[in-house]
From TrEMBL, chain A:
Species for this entry: Paenibacillus abyssi
Keywords noted in UniProt: Cell membrane, Membrane, Transmembrane, Transmembrane helix, Transport
Origin: domain of life: Bacteria
ABC transmembrane type-1 domain: residues covered: 67-257
Database matches in Gene3D superfamilies: MetI-like
Membrane topology, from the record: Multi-pass membrane protein
Protein name: Sugar ABC transporter permease
TrEMBL record, chain B:
Taxonomy of the source species: Bacteria, Bacillati, Bacillota, Bacilli, Bacillales
Transmembrane segments: 20-38, 82-103, 115-135, 168-190, 211-233, 275-294
Annotated localization: Cell membrane
PANTHER family: ABC TRANSPORTER PERMEASE PROTEIN, ABC TRANSPORTER PERMEASE PROTEIN YESP-RELATED
GO terms under biological process: transmembrane transport
Keyword Zinc-finger assigned: no
Keyword tags: Cell membrane, Membrane, Transmembrane, Transmembrane helix, Transport
Name listed for the protein in its UniProt record: Spermidine/putrescine ABC transporter permease
Membrane-related topology note: Multi-pass membrane protein
GO cellular component assignments: plasma membrane
Residues of the signal peptide: none
Family: Belongs to the binding-protein-dependent transport system permease family.
SUPFAM superfamilies according to UniProt: MetI-like
UniProt domain ABC transmembrane type-1: residue ranges: 78-291
Length: 272, 304
């Protein structure tokens, strides 16, 4: 038994190295002076430690403008998802109305359609609306619901008992109050997970901004890093600094909400 | 409810229920029509036209589809995409399950290992691309540096026609943490009784894996297989960022969706790109259907 555990540790440590070494390398490069970056064989410890790489990176591209744009898009689309998806999911799971099942099946069917199919007509639609070059195409649709999230939340609401709603109805509570004050709070773990998924999707999105954010003042960090890379592709120290700054908020969030992350992914894999 | 309830009240309740149901679902009904149904129908139409954002275009029937059949780069992009899927999906399943099973031995520090495996999935794809370009840099990258120290001269990786796709598979394997977490949850769902019973029968470690663990894990494998195949066919950000949108070297990194994007938004052949999108849809549907159909033979649900 002990031999087996020791063997397991060896495997896990080897695998951990594969997963963690690139991070350390990213951090190490981001703090190295230029000459040391191009030393071969590679060196691990930056000397001297160049904190100025971070400052330089932030001035090569309009970092704070891009950060601001990213934060606005991420915040607004996450807000949209949290407002719209649970109430629609609740309606699918717990309210009885004509056409409900047909619409739910349509929602599942839509979920299976690859985004590329609607990409071009959507672009033309947003173009007609004059939204190209603004963050609106990346925000407004979230307020009208995302099929995958509606599906996940619906599965969660299905698991909640009807008796609570019935009791509240007898007490004379209105339908909206039943949703907002009784059912929604019960669905909090699922709503949090969905919000987290949207946050991640939005923060790391590349193709969306690439399609719609056509002028530089509206760029997100993803586009900023891509721009940096195509203009100054040899400044590895600065690019690793930008990459670190882009990744750090997600990692910090992860450490605060680790349980929600893991539960959300597990729920997706088991119920989805 | 109360048995004395009269029919008019019931009818009123039903109307009320209809009203609130529709009201609560109304954002999505609007969203479904605006952002899904309407674009979907227009996409079918566009695929039969020579539409571009610059000119209104004409109805050309099946011409786009016929042209695609004679488009070498179209076939090359399919080859590249299938290549990636064929290597990445099985490898991600094998490594994912293997690591989850080792974690499941419940060694000390299991939560720490799990976190470490999960961390790469938090890196934005564009940052992941830039990081791996640097790791795989032929002259000064860490990978070739390490190979050099054991006396191997590493290839040019992303700059080599032979090694570009394996590099992509390799860096994609770096991000399989989500699958590991799902496998781990699947393993935790297998009742200990089965293992205890097999101990009584004197089963060895390998027999337990073959007859208990893997069969009971098949629903989760099934989920990851479907998601993996769908994801592999929609690969875009990584190869786009790695090659600055060029698909270089020698189009060895031109993936299906990249070529679709180029047609639609670089060459403005939006009708042509729409036809590509529908072919992609059919490919994904057929593959998903095959996996679903085959699942009857190899997926075992507990309690059935």
């Amino acid at each position: 038994m002990n031999v087996r555990k020791a063997l397991a540790h060896v495997c896990l440590i080897a695998a951990s190295l594969f997963f963690i070494v690139p991070f350390i390398w990213m951090l190490s490069t981001s703090l190295k002076p230029r000459e040391q970056i191009y030393s071969f064989p590679p060196e691990w410890i930056p000397s001297p430690v160049m904190w100025s790489n971070y400052v330089d990176a932030m001035s090569y591209i309009p970092f704070f403008t891009y950060l601001n744009n990213t934060v606005i898009i991420t915040f607004m689309s996450t807000l949209g998802v949290i407002l719209a998806c649970p109430i629609v999911a609740y309606s699918f799971a717990k309210l009885r109305w004509r056409g409900r099942n047909g619409l739910f099946i349509t929602t599942i069917a839509v979920m299976m359609i690859p985004g590329q199919v609607t990409m071009i007509p959507l672009f033309l639609l947003f173009n007609k609306l004059g939204w190209i070059g603004t963050p609106l195409p990346l925000i407004v649709p979230a307020f009208l619901g995302v099929p995958f999230f509606i599906f996940l939340l619906r599965q969660f609401f299905m698991g909640l008992p009807d008796s609570l709603m019935d009791a509240a109805r007898i007490d004379g509570a209105g339908e909206f109050r039943i949703y907002a004050q009784i059912m929604l709070p019960l669905a909090r773990p699922a709503v949090l997970a969905v919000g987290l998924f949207q946050f991640m999707a939005s923060w790391t999105d590349f193709i969306g901004p690439l399609l719609y954010l056509t002028n530089e003042s509206s760029y997100t960090l993803s586009l900023g890093l891509q721009q940096f890379q195509s203009q100054r592709g040899s400044e590895w120290g600065l690019m690793m600094a930008v990459s670190t700054m882009m990744t750090l908020p997600v990692i910090i969030l992860f450490f605060f909400l680790q349980k929600t992350f893991i539960q959300g992914i597990t729920f997706t894999g088991i119920k989805g | 409810m109360q048995p004395t309830e009269s029919t008019p009240t019931l009818k009123k309740n039903k109307e009320k229920s209809n009203y609130y149901g529709l009201l609560f679902a109304s954002p999505w009904i609007l969203g479904l029509m605006l952002f899904y149904a309407f674009p979907l129908l227009s996409s079918v139409y566009f695929s039969f036209t020579s539409y571009s954002i610059l000119q209104p275009g004409n109805f050309v029937g099946l011409q786009n589809y016929k042209d695609l059949m004679n488009d070498d780069l179209f076939w090359k992009s399919i080859y590249n995409t299938v290549y990636f899927a064929v290597f990445f999906v099985p490898l991600s399943i094998i490594f994912g399950i293997a690591l989850a099973m080792v974690l499941n031995i419940k060694v000390k520090g299991m939560a720490v290992y799990r976190t470490v495996f999960f961390l790469p999935t938090l890196v934005p794809h564009i940052a992941l691309a830039v990081l791996w370009m640097w790791l795989l840099n032929p002259g000064f990258g860490l990978v070739n540096g390490m190979l050099h120290s054991i006396g191997i001269e590493g290839p040019a990786w992303l700059g080599s026609e032979t090694w570009s796709k394996p590099s992509l598979v390799f860096m994609s394997l770096w991000g399989i943490g989500q699958a590991i977490v799902i496998y781990l949850a699947g393993l935790a769902d297998i009742p200990q009784d089965y293992y205890d019973a097999s101990d009584v029968d004197g089963a060895n470690w390998f027999q337990k894996i073959r007859t208990i663990t893997l069969p009971l894990l098949t629903p989760v494998i099934f989920f990851n297989l479907v998601m993996g195949v769908i994801g592999a066919f929609q690969q875009f950000t990584l190869p786009y960022a790695l090659t600055k949108g060029q698909g270089s070297p020698a189009n060895s990194m031109t993936f299906y969706v990249m070529y679709l994007y180029d047609n639609g938004f670089k060459f403005f052949k939006m009708g042509y790109a729409s036809a590509m999108a529908w072919i992609l849809f059919v490919i994904i549907m057929v593959l998903t259907a095959i996996i679903f159909w085959s699942s009857k033979r190899w997926v075992h649900y507990q309690g059935k």
